[in-house]
Amino acid sequence: MQHIFDGHNDLLLRLWMEKDYEAKLFIDGGKSILNQKMNTAMGIGNDGHIDLTRASVGGLSGGFFAMFVPDPNMGKSPPKNGFIDSKEIKQDYALRVTLEMLDIIENIINKSNNKVQLILNKSDFKEEDFKAETYSTLKMLIHIEGAECIDGDLNQLDTLYSKGLRSIGPVWSRSNVFAHGVPFDFPGTPDTGPGLTDQGKNLVQACNSKGIMIDLSHLNEAGFWDVAKISSKPLVATHSNSHKITPSPRNLTDKQLAAVAESGGVVGLNFATGFLRSDGKKVSQTPLTQMIAHLDHLLEKLGENGVALGSDFDGAQIPEGIKDCAGLPNLIVAMKSAGYGEDLINKICYKNWHNLIHMTIN
Question: Per the CB 3.0–4.6 Å rule, which of 44, 100, 270, 308 could disulfide with 352?
Answer without folding.
Answer: 308
